[in-house]
Specification:
This protein has no helices and 17 strands. By secondary structure, it is mainly beta. It starts with 5 loop residues before the first strand and ends with a strand.
Length: 186
């Protein structure tokens, strides 16, 4: 985020800071805070806030401007199921859940959610296992299918299906990667 690497090691979030003295770089780790859990985390940022999400566990937001690190405590964050993976698009943190839904944060605020702001894969509603952003579109990946959504800027839930549907699912949730204007997965 903002040119600095952030990573989770063990149960802590760290930032790697670089200092130049006489054009010689030196590095220091800054511990931001605790990340409870042992699962591989999902992370996304909006340039100000970094969300760290432990699948099925807790979500955390670090605001680098205010230097505040906090657990997401909004009850609507988990109202539609246990959060699994996060991406950021068009001012929203978009999070999949374990109940075939995906939720969005308030605009530019990863600490605020509404239980009514959720979407579902509808062409063939299989279990959502992953998601990816490609060409400013959201691809909700299920175990059997992938469905495309876009931000339509409506006053309610901002994301709608485009009708694009891939009749292949994702076996390995962490395998989805962007490659040369498209994406691939296992």
């Amino acid at each position: 985020m903002v040119g600095k690497p952030y990573f989770v090691n063990g149960e802590s979030l760290y930032r790697l800071d670089q200092t130049l003295v006489d054009n010689v770089p030196s590095y220091a780790l800054t511990r931001i805070g605790e990340v409870a859990g042992t699962a591989r985390v999902s992370m996304a940022d909006n340039g100000t806030q970094l969300m760290v999400l432990v699948p099925g566990g807790n979500g955390y937001i670090y605001n680098h401007v205010t230097d505040v690190y906090a657990q997401i405590t909004d009850v609507d964050f988990t109202a539609n199921g246990a959060p699994q993976f996060v991406v950021f698009i068009d001012g929203y943190f978009l999070v999949t859940t374990d109940t075939k839904k995906f939720i969005v944060s308030a605009l530019n605020n990863g600490l605020s959610y509404s239980a009514l702001d959720f979407g579902t894969a509808e062409s063939d509603p299989d279990d959502i296992v992953s998601l990816i952003i490609n060409k400013n579109r959201v691809y909700i990946a299920g175990s059997e299918t992938i469905e495309e959504f876009q931000n339509v800027g409506s006053g309610g839930f901002p994301f709608q299906r485009t009708g694009m549907f891939i009749p292949k699912g994702v076996f390995a949730p962490l395998s989805m990667v962007n490659v040369g204007g498209s994406f691939m997965w296992i």
